[in-house]
Specification:
The complex is a heterodimer of chains A (461) and B (246).
Chain A (H helix, E strand, L loop, with lengths): L9 H8 L3 H22 L5 H17 L1 H14 L3 E5 L2 H14 L4 E4 L3 H6 L1 H6 L4 E4 L2 H8 L16 H12 L8 H18 L2 E4 L3 E3 L4 E6 L3 H7 L3 E7 L3 E2 L5 H13 L6 E5 L7 E7 L3 H5 L15 H5 L1 H6 L10 H11 L1 H4 L11 H5 L6 H14 L5 H13 L3 H14 L4 H4 L20 H8 L4
Helix pairs in contact in A: 2-12, 3-12, 9-10, 16-19
Chain B lengths: L1 E4 L3 H6 L1 H13 L3 E3 L9 H5 L3 H15 L4 E4 L2 H10 L7 H9 E3 H9 L12 E5 L2 H6 L15 H6 L6 E2 L15 H4 L1 H17 L4 E4 L2 H13 L5 E4 H5 L4
Parallel strand pairs in B: 1-2, 1-3, 3-4, 5-6, 5-7, 7-8
Helix pairs in contact in B: 4-6, 11-12
The chains are: A alpha/beta (461), B alpha/beta (246).
Chain lengths: 461, 246
């Protein structure tokens, strides 16, 4: 299910996810809970819409001046004693990280949640070079043990039931068979992770915000695992996508007020940690990663997506995501935002994703930084079609339909023909070619169309 | 005030009663309404499939057909939304700008231009649930969406609130998409149907007899599921409810 290598489309993957309806319903409810908690929390923040506008305009300013903010950030961080690295792509990022670890002869690292390192494929890169990588976020550790990718950006194991976690922990951590008590399982994971924290020689983290003014990075977790990692070993490495920059310390307040409520409905996350300089005798590295972001910045239709703070609100509200699961998007970032980020960078691989949406627009209304997500999906459909990523059959049918739309006579004849088709015998009408009819009845054709009625009853001669 | 009646192509063929109800409602207000016979389709299915450039002739045809009217009124939030928001890719002549800004959904027109108090009181003695189409809700902002922290309002409920005998029952997820989504309904049929089935269950669990909506496309999808599952539920367009005087 979590295998992204097969060339199966979102529609095909969804169909197989939906075969297990009780599980689909459970998944829908589990993800919807995030949305419900979000709603409950933000209803108590009367200035919510102003905060969204403010955050969006701060990010607008960042995107327009990204180069100078990045330089400002590098200068401030360097003055703090941090070593700043620039990575043009995933390969550069991975080799920079490996080079740092290699220099310190590190063979065991702990890593807190980072979608960026997933995007870059850091884990397999380091593992193939003899380094043990332990993901320390509980959900990430679970899927790492199962050798699966994340199915959700903030709840990577949302697709798993606690019974499955219990079985996994029984196998891997020798917990009691059949004990599904979340507290019991979490304690077992904590013991297991404590040992890994103590033995780690370096820590890697993702970053939520990088403040240009101070050169500091901000890392938000609920489990404190980033801090457990960073505060013990001598070497800490923070991997940052270049769009994570915010200009000033004071802007942080705006984003922190939006992030946790949007993500999980918490007023604030449990840990908001600020890292500015290396610990005494230690080293602190920050890797600034582009990996397609500046190309994205250069496309006016889609640059807004770079405002994303990875809160997952669009994913949680998405009626399609909730019912098809993260793996149906066959990419690291699933859901509406992933349906822009992935095809914008790799159209050959992800051209199905902008069509994996009913364009209901809930994502756009829920987004804390006001990314016009569903409008971008609509535009991407156009862009991908122009690039030739639409099937021949679809193109032919649509071109035929479009061709008649400016010719009233032709159009009306083809619509009448369609209506007549609906009067065909049931065995013919509901053949396997009728995709609509698998689960739905077709409308019953009326005796006359509105235009026929109008001609008879209203038209002045 | 001269009104051009814009009846979506599938409504024209499959749901003539909705067209008739819309026309009678507008005529009942003493308005000068005309249905230009040359109209075809607004082009939305083509554009949503990613081929908006192929839809341009239909956009131009629409503008030619409707440019002489003061308002263009459609019993569809979705089609009105498409004209208003996606006709931005053709040169913005005075005619195009006029047609775009004057194309209104029926509920929007009755609320904003006519005033909901001017409409003859209808009678519809049933328990019903409202289906807010996404294009009406978040596209045309005919009501407040639950994602935002802004004052509540609903142009649909303003109109339905005046209908005698109608008991409008709230449902559990009032602005969850029904899953129709135009071509989405056949390109992703499994999830589209699941969304529709869940939506139908929400109405069923809340004990309604009728689902009322401003968009027949959502209702075509929901009704298809209702009839396949043989459920005790009916669908009806808001124009038919507002035009019921039985």
């Amino acid at each position: 299910m979590g295998d992204f290598n097969h060339h199966l489309t979102h529609a095909a993957r969804s169909a197989s996810f939906l075969e297990d309806e009780p599980r689909t319903n459970w998944h829908n409810g589990a993800v919807m809970n995030f949305r419900k908690k979000r709603d409950a929390t933000i209803k108590a923040i009367p200035e919510w819409e102003e905060l969204r506008s403010l955050a969006s305009s701060i990010k607008e300013n960042v995107l327009g001046n990204l180069d100078s903010y990045l330089e400002q950030f590098e200068k401030a961080a360097t003055e703090n004693g941090v070593r700043v690295h620039w990575a043009a792509d995933a390969a550069a990022h991975n080799s920079i990280v490996h080079e740092i670890l290699n220099r310190h002869q590190v063979t065991r690292i702990v890593k807190s949640k980072s979608i960026l390192t997933e995007e870059c494929g850091l884990n397999p890169y380091l593992e193939s070079r003899g380094i043990e990588v332990i993901d320390t976020d509980l959900g990430e550790r679970i899927i790492q043990m199962r050798d699966e990718p994340p199915s959700h950006i903030i709840a990577p194991a949302i697709h798993l039931k606690r019974e499955e976690v219990s079985e996994l922990f029984h196998d891997r951590l020798q917990t009691e068979k059949g004990n599904t008590d979340p507290t019991y399982l979490t304690r077992a994971a904590r013991l297991h992770l404590r040992e890994k924290f103590l033995k780690a020689q370096a820590a890697i983290t993702g970053v939520n915000f990088a403040v240009a003014e101070t050169g500091g990075v901000v890392i938000i977790t609920n489990e404190g695992n980033a801090d457990m990692g960073c505060n013990l070993p001598p070497v800490q490495i923070h991997c940052v996508g270049i769009e994570k920059i915010i200009p000033r310390w004071e802007h942080l307040g705006v984003f922190l007020r939006l992030l946790a409520p949007s993500a999980s409905g918490q007023k604030s996350s449990i840990y908001t940690s600020h890292y500015h300089q290396p610990k005494s005798g230690g080293e602190m590295h920050i890797v600034l990663v582009d990996n397609g972001r500046s190309d994205h910045l250069g496309s006016p239709d889609f640059r807004n997506t770079l405002k994303c703070i990875r809160c997952s609100a669009c994913i949680n509200t998405c009626p399609v995501y909730r019912r098809t699961g993260g793996y149906s998007y066959h990419s690291v970032v699933a859901g509406p935002i992933g349906s822009i980020l992935n095809p914008a960078r790799h159209p050959e691989q992800y051209n199905d994703l902008p069509f994996a949406s009913s364009l209901c627009g809930s994502c756009t209304d829920v987004c804390p930084v006001k990314i016009d997500i569903h409008h971008q999906l609509y535009h991407l459909r156009q862009t991908l079609t122009e690039k030739g990523y639409v099937t021949y059959v679809k193109k032919t049918i649509m071109k035929m339909a479009a061709g008649s739309m400016s010719h009233p006579g032709k159009f009306s004849r083809s619509m009448k023909w369609m209506k007549r088709l609906l009067g065909a015998p049931r065995w013919l009408l509901y053949s396997p070619f009728n995709v609509w009819g698998k689960t739905r009845e077709l409308p019953a054709p009326p005796a006359e169309s509105f235009s026929d009625w109008y001609l008879k009853n209203r038209k002045k001669t | 005030m001269k009104i051009g009646l814009f009846i979506p192509c599938y409504v024209n063929q499959f749901y003539p009663k909705v067209g008739i109800a819309t026309l009678e409602l507008l005529e009942g207000l003493g308005l000068d309404v005309e249905y230009p016979m040359e109209q075809t389709c607004c082009g939305q299915p083509i554009a949503n499939s990613g081929m908006e450039k192929d839809a341009i002739p239909s956009y131009q045809h629409f503008v030619r057909t409707f440019k002489s009217y003061d308002y263009i009124v459609a019993p569809s939030g979705s089609c009105a939304y498409h004209v208003r928001n996606h006709y931005d890719i053709i040169p913005q002549s005075a005619d195009v700008e006029k047609v775009r800004s004057k194309t209104l959904d029926l509920a929007e027109f009755l609320n904003d231009i006519i005033g909901s108090d001017k409409i003859r009181q209808a009678r519809f003695p049933h328990k019903a649930g409202l289906h807010q189409s996404c294009h009406g809700l978040r596209g045309l902002r005919l009501a407040q969406s639950s994602e935002r922290v802004l004052p509540a309002f609903s142009k649909w409920e303003n109109l339905l609130g005046k209908v005698d005998g109608l008991s409008l029952v709230p449902i559990t997820f009032p602005d969850e998409c029904c899953g129709f989504g135009g071509t989405f309904s056949v390109t992703e049929p499994e999830v589209s149907s699941k969304m529709g089935s869940d939506k139908v269950d929400d109405y069923l669990n809340n004990g309604v007899e009728y689902i009322i909506s401003g968009d027949m496309s959502c209702l075509m999808h929901l009704d298809g599921i209702i009839r396949r599952r043989k459920l005790p539920l009916k669908t009806i367009h808001i124009a038919e409810v507002l035009n019921s005087h039985g």
